[in-house]
Amino acid sequence: MANNLFDDFNADLATNGRYYFEEKSEAVSDQLSGGIRVEAKLKYALEKLTFNGEIFTNWDSMDNARRYTDIRKANVYFSNSKITLGAGVDTFFWGVSESINVVNVLNQSDLRESLDGKVKLGQTFISMSHPFSNGEFSIYFLPEFRPIDFPERPAFGLPVSEKNVYENNEKEGGFATRALFYFSDYEFAVSYFEGTRRSPILIPQVNLKELLPYYIQTKNVLLDGVYLADDFTLKLEAKFGKERESAFTTSNIGIEYPSYILEDYIDEIIFIAEYVFDDRGITAETHGQNDIFIGAKFDFGETNQGNIRFLYSYDLDNKGQYLELNYQYRLSDYVRYKFKFISVLDSSPEDQRLHALRKEEFVKLSIHYAF
């Protein structure tokens, strides 16, 4: 009946478990937890209008912060040959990199679902886009800001306060513009964002033995692009801006190279190398401040039933090391399972974000039924 009501409807039901190798952290003691998650998406088109919906809900046996529901999408778009108008709640993705997307600034990260920040919460918006011969120009107004809800684990060394503090008491969602261009083997975009920074500075409160999230205002000029050569792909993300009256620069420069060294078993392995730079020091948004990321990704199986992706990072300043492994295999058209492993192999107190996660290595296994 759903297919008669909507142009497109699908759901993903999953059960999952997490196991932390450290029995206790400095914050919480739950080492093993299980959970259930439900994700449903729908789409309906009516002449020049398109309606989109997506809801995500999760329940965890040990972590209260992971018992939540989020509306990822609830929007309507009006389109004709000259303009597209949109409003509601949506998730937007900007960026091209495999490791850290420094230009993906519109939506708040859902750290309860994914520590790498690639899973996003829904963001209220009003937008207008105008296509042209080789690209598109867009404007976004984001009326609401959403602070991060931190899970109990992975912990950041101390519990994170539920109280949030904002620079100058401002917590606007912000506004943005983006111009996207296509030229032959090139695709690139120039964007601007101004508003409350999505990633807070975590300030230790010694007396309360907790971390206080402090959200600052930011102004960003953003660049991202891809060059598709015959034998490799070049990628760039860069952000130039101003925070707390100081200018900053952060970037991610990378290359992807396909190889066929195991073509008897795997059609293609794509090797990844990226360099992440951020000159903001302890106020940086991620642990990538002068870091090299290397890794690979590939599909396998007769009909690409499975895929593997792994990344390893090395901090050139503090010699910190981080490892992430993702594995997915499709048992049938409806059933698949996923495995994820995250480990901080080495860290230095100078790298505050990575060092805080040094006791939070975990594995996650989930079994999905999708229809």
Your description of this structure?
- This protein has an 18-stranded antiparallel β-barrel. Strands 8-12-11 form a 3-stranded mixed beta sheet, with no helix packed on it.
- The model has no long low-confidence stretch (mean pLDDT 92).
- The chain has 2 helices and 21 strands.
- The protein has helices at 2-5, 352-355; strands at residues 8-20, 32-46, 49-60, 68-79, 84-90, 123-132, 135-142, 165-166, 174-183, 186-196, 201-205, 210-215, 217-228, 233-243, 246-259, 269-278, 290-300, 306-315, 321-330, 335-346, 362-370.
- The longest helix has 4 residues, at 2-5.
- Strand 3 and strand 4 form a beta hairpin.
- It is an all-beta fold and 371 residues long.
- It is globular and about 60 Å long.
- Helices cover 2% and strands 57% of the residues.
